């Protein structure tokens, strides 16, 4: 702030002491100056060079005094054109460009076009710089076109044609000649007729159409003698002489050159030139005088400033001191920032390395979890399957505590695997909610039945209370919803003995199609202490667990909380030690009756069909082969088993199947590659992947390979047959259509 105040003080102080006298200048009206410039142009047209320069000099002085950029440019244009006529090329270019500098500051496009055109003439005809000259011509055309100056366009295009012909480039000049021939009567006027005929003569001379060229040259000479275009007449005689040389008429060619020299001599009368040069010198003196006046004014201002030098010096010292202090401060800040930046660069490099390591560790963790889940699910499929086979084939063992324990242990281990895999997917944001039509009542009752073994082991009873106003069919992610209910109810059952667990659903609000349903999972178990209630949703937390206490990983409620976040919902609880716990959350499901009816009609499949389907099982694991074959044959389907993808392709060449059950993780040729090859062979049989991989991990690759559906091992037999019937029903329906 101090620095800014000093600068403002300096500014006002200097202004206070710098008031000097203002010189008075002669003035003249704009109309009068325009009249002077017009008079100078007329004198130039009449080859009165001395008068033209003198008049333009006066007009320039008044135009400068008025600060009128257009009038200054116009005056310089006339002065430069006069020097051009006097063959003072350097001076002409100097004044043309000076005029152009003022013209560019004005808004008048006519003067801009005129100056660019005239500079183009100098470069093309005097300096032999055709490309630079044509560039100036094109700028002149842009300005003339912008203001629709047809006369200016015509004159510029004539100059371009003349420039190209002058340099012997007749093909480039031809389009411009065609234009001026076409528009002579509209835009040209009498002042250009001599030049037009001469240009046609030059063109046809180059084409060796000598008689036609001769006619144009004679017309040019006749019209030049009748009018005042003496300069164009002289050039017509010069070019006509070139034609006569080609025809071999050297006498006439000589006569025309004599006439050319005579006309040029009369135009460039030495006395006129001398007088004009004197005026030109005076004009240059004016330029120098203006510079001297400017310098004197500057000296006068400096003298006034020096009178106040003491004040200025003091203020300057103060300002310099402040600036030095600021510079020192900036330097210190810069040094500090440089050091900080160096530290930040090192820290960023370390963070980048740490980030790469973390990403690599995360990838390895995901890969490890996926591999472990696959490796665990595969033998679990065997354990669950063989247990079911024993119970089916040996009814006398139905009440065997050993088999029940075996089945319970297998299901428990599968639950652990699913929990670990689920929390891993949530942490990596790999879960996207789906929109499927489902019956909420059926889903909850199915969960109730599937958890009956846990309920029995703790002597508990599960109650289901569903609000009748809830629509029969809702739209949402039924899989994630089921995971939430399963985790909540199984958690309640494990912490309740000889009691009840109630699943309650109430419709609390409807907004458009969204139906907000409040769920209460209530038990009368051990309860949760108030100080522990915020911890239970953290991973791996098990409140009050002892060595022989409740089973589980401590992931269930953590998974519930994160899945509810995907539904834009939260969970709350009320609990007292020894009285039980109630968990409450609300989920919004859509309800679309028309869509639900359409979907229900499509999935009405008769699972009791007596038709015998032929199924091919492709699996390299002998135990899996045995279990899958027993499940299929138990449902009266015909089953053939092969050990590899190669064997599957061979048998499909000779036999036809209704469904193919394909394992994914096989040696030599996996399930994806096998499916791709059979699709390439034109085999359209539906393929169901039976795999221990998580569905979300393989769904994209499975669909791209041509697999129709995926079932994760271990699975319930009813799910397998439901999927088979749905695929066969869809296939038959397509054939009917």
From TrEMBL:
It catalyses: ATP + protein L-histidine = ADP + protein N-phospho-L-histidine. GO terms for molecular function: phosphorelay sensor kinase activity. The chain crosses the membrane at residues 311-331. The keyword Transmembrane helix applies. Keywords: Membrane, Phosphoprotein, Transmembrane, Transmembrane helix. The modification 4-aspartylphosphate is found at residue 663. Residues 614-728 form the Response regulatory domain. It is an enzyme of class 2 (transferase). The keyword Phosphoprotein applies. Its EC number is 2.7.13.3. Residues 371-591 form the Histidine kinase domain. It holds the Pfam family HisKA. This is histidine kinase.
